[in-house]
Amino acid sequence: MRAPVQVAKKVAPKNPGPTNKKQKAQDRVRWRNVWMTARMRDQFIAAEKILLKKFPNAPKLSFSKGSWMPYSRLSGPTHNGAGVADLRDSPYNTAQRKYLDKAMKDVGLYPYYREAGWDGSADNSHWHVLDQVTTGMNASAKRQVASYKAGRNGLNNNAPDRSYRPKTPVIWKYLLGRAVPV
Ligand SMILES: [Zn+2]
Fold it and tell me: 78 CA to middle of ligand 1, Å?
């Protein structure tokens, strides 16, 4: 009688840990052509995985601006410190955009979707994405994190943000490599 064949089940580890175990959460890393913290990169990687699982042909994430950037006319000093990046929305269709927005929020990022014309220019739509851990973050970005937590849009008018939010707030745990309820 033959022994039953053992089929190894491929189960994703519950706590996969950091993408690069040599890096600390707040280390500056270069990823997809911009600078950001290691923990922010890991959150984007997790969100991208969720997106690509549903839409295998969706383009990978790409950025128009990272962290530790000089003052600019459009962003002011917001990108001066850690924990902030501008993600391009133009590679995605409406369904992918909605799904990616949710995926980022579900891994603990605070993305603000800025539609074309938000700043008075004809076409500058993108996600302005914040990490909710504000270590080394510029003061105006910190104010946006507080605004997000209060259900607001992070702009000068501080209007309500009616886009998707996780029912239970979550935060990314860098050493676990996943988001957990706050
Ligand atoms: Zn921005």
Answer: 7
